[in-house]
Amino acid sequence: MSHSTAFIDAIDTIPSEQWDALFPASEPFTQHAFLHSLASSGATTARSGWQPHHFCVWQGEQLIAAVPLYQKTHSYGEYLFDWPFAEAHQRYQQPYYPKWLGAIPFTPATGQRFGIHPQAPQWLTVEWLLQTVADKAQQAGIQHLQILYPLATEAVQAPEPWLTRYDLQFHWYNRGYQDFEQFLAALKSRKRKIVRKERQQVAQLPLSIEEYSGDQLTAAQIRRCFAFYRDTYTKRSGHLGYLTEQTFEQWFTRLGQSIVVVAASDANGWVAAAIFFRSETTLYGRYWGCLEDYDKLHFELCYYRGIDYCIRHQLQRFDAGAQGEHKRLRGFEVTRCYGLYHVEASALAAAISDYCQTERQQIDALAQEFIAQSPYLAEP
Questions:
Q1: For residue 379, what pLDDT band results from cuts at 50, 70 and 90?
Q2: What's the number of domains the chain is made of?
Q3: What is the pTM of this model?
Q4: What is the spatial distance between Cα 122 and Cα 115, in angstroms, rounded to a whole number?
Q5: Does residue 323 sit within a domain?
Q6: CA distance linking residue 347 with residue 299, whole number of Å
Q7: What does the pLDDT read at residue 380?
Q8: Do 56 and 91 fall within a single domain?
């Protein structure tokens, strides 16, 4: 049977069951409900500079492949940033935007970026999707096409002239620990003391800490989660963040069982919360907020409670988000992430290629330094 391709700007026109059949069932960020919530709440629109432009492959009426794709007019909210490329184009008076971005908006989490139906024809591969989208971009006059945080198994399938960038994050890996104490026993003495001391400091605060599944929260608690998110963005960067209150409401309504909230309360209610998403294998730390500056509470809610959750629920990995070398002191290990870039039509393609090669070498060297400074007694 012949196939057809199309770019879809409104994901609600795609049957959710067909979209979700292309991606792992438990992975939250590629689910139709997650992406639709972003669009319908106003977070990903042409006005916000995140115009949905999902690439879809059909066989008759059946969706057999898709790439979550956005047409962007800026580089905000990406985390594997390309500001040096954009600034160089500006200096040389060369166009950079609009660009096409294959990514989960505002989410620096590695995951499947190429959805392929299990019964799709054998010719339908990641390499074919990359080449086809690149051809479509060239036909549309788009000079810059990027795929952020794909799986390593997807990244290695990128054909020339796709360029690869590396990024480093710090993830926690479950080595079959029975409880938090067994995890601590695996750490070097100094790191173990740091964790114990920080947890003891939080235990002495006049706060109670509770864990919730997202579908247990009241409307008022969901609004409080959004208020924490917005407050954190305001403190860090001076802007209100990328998401809306409606985004949170829709996520908790549609994906509540994939959300975990750890909240700290005083006599008047919640004073801090960490918000996680989860799959069958991985916990993802996403958002955090606090009304007052309680010493070490961030580490307790965002890291230690997350580790404890993974141990209790036998999850394999804890991705606590981008950046944060301080995580290494607390049992997180350096992990390589990937970005793919197609810039063949750019006037600065050669310079970008050189930049990526140098950057990969530097990041590999830095990763080796971090590996040599492992927080564990022996290499797991």
A1: low
A2: 2
A3: 0.96
A4: 14
A5: no
A6: 45
A7: 47
A8: yes
